Amino acid sequence: MAKGSEVLSQNQIDSLLSAIDSGSTTVQNMQEKGQTSDVRLYDFRHPSKFSREHSQTLLAVHEIFGRLLGTQLTTQMRLPVQMEVASVDQLTYDEFMRSITNPTVVMIYRLLPLEGTILFEFTPGTAISIIERLLGGPGRAGARPRELTDIEQTLMSNVFNKGMVSFKEAWKHILPNLEPVIQALETNPRFVQICASSDSVLVISYEMKLGESTGSMRICLPYPTIEPVLANMHRQFFMSGQLRKEELQPLSEEVKRTMEQVEVKVALLLGYTDITVRDLIGLQVGDVIQLGSQPADSLPLTVEQTCKFHARPGTLGRQMAAQITAIVDEG
């Protein structure tokens, strides 16, 4: 049957009528053929511009970014930081902005040489935990969310500008000459507009573990910004969402070099004893507390409050020292 604006000629009409008269076809058969045309539903409110392959490639890229950034933050904060991709969602920009709380922490970056911008969004608690740790605190957020002060915004910008080295590393196979440049840091989502409300965006959500605290981060990639490099997002370098082994080697070396610079607290526990509260209150300068260990005993040597070795106390030159006598079996 004719489709859309297609018009049958007189000869085609005569041929159809002759076929019906001869019994070689029927009107019902022609209607069924017309109904089996390839029709695909399309939701104009949620246009899918990122293909499945694009989403898988960007997922692999940002899994690498999460690992590298976690290692870099571990070095800066002197605190174990883990980052894992929790989800990848395709939304409209309006839907994404309506999901952001107020106050928030939004960092907008231009990805040169591309036109347009992307944004990184943190919950206030996550940003405050990072800042507090950098300033020597335990890295815990307050109970109530609040806006960052001007000094805190500067510190957060400095931390994440260093993190952009990891972003460049993760994107190097898609855009080798990528140069992220910070444009703004906002705490009120109403002042953030990086693309049209109806534009499609890909949102990568991370779960973060900052020592004993937890947090989250999201990256918003507008389709108009990264459209010029979508053609580069193929599986030449990615297989089943992972980099090939030869491509992972440099990243592994970079992670190893970074981890070797991480400082950890090592302590030798000389011993324990039990005393009464009365004795504790009466302690004065010069009093001696007898511990339960002997001078020749191997004592617990802890790394970040976890016993990893046993060692004997002593001196080396004019400094106190400990000689390792055994390694703790964690099996």
Automatic annotation (TrEMBL):
It is found in: Bacterial flagellum basal body; Cell membrane. GO terms for cellular component: bacterial-type flagellum basal body; plasma membrane. One of its GO terms (biological process) is bacterial-type flagellum-dependent swarming motility. One of its GO terms (molecular function) is cytoskeletal motor activity. PANTHER family: FLAGELLAR MOTOR SWITCH PROTEIN FLIM, YOP PROTEINS TRANSLOCATION PROTEIN Q. InterPro entries: CheC-like_sf, Flag_FliM, FliN-like_C, SpoA-like_sf. Belongs to the FliM family. Residues 259-328 form the Flagellar motor switch protein FliN-like C-terminal domain. This is Flagellar motor switch protein FliM. Keywords: Bacterial flagellum, Cell membrane, Cell projection, Chemotaxis, Cilium, Flagellar rotation, Flagellum, Membrane. It comes from bacterium (Candidatus Blackallbacteria) CG17_big_fil_post_rev_8_21_14_2_50_48_46. It comes from the Bacteria. It is a peripheral membrane protein.
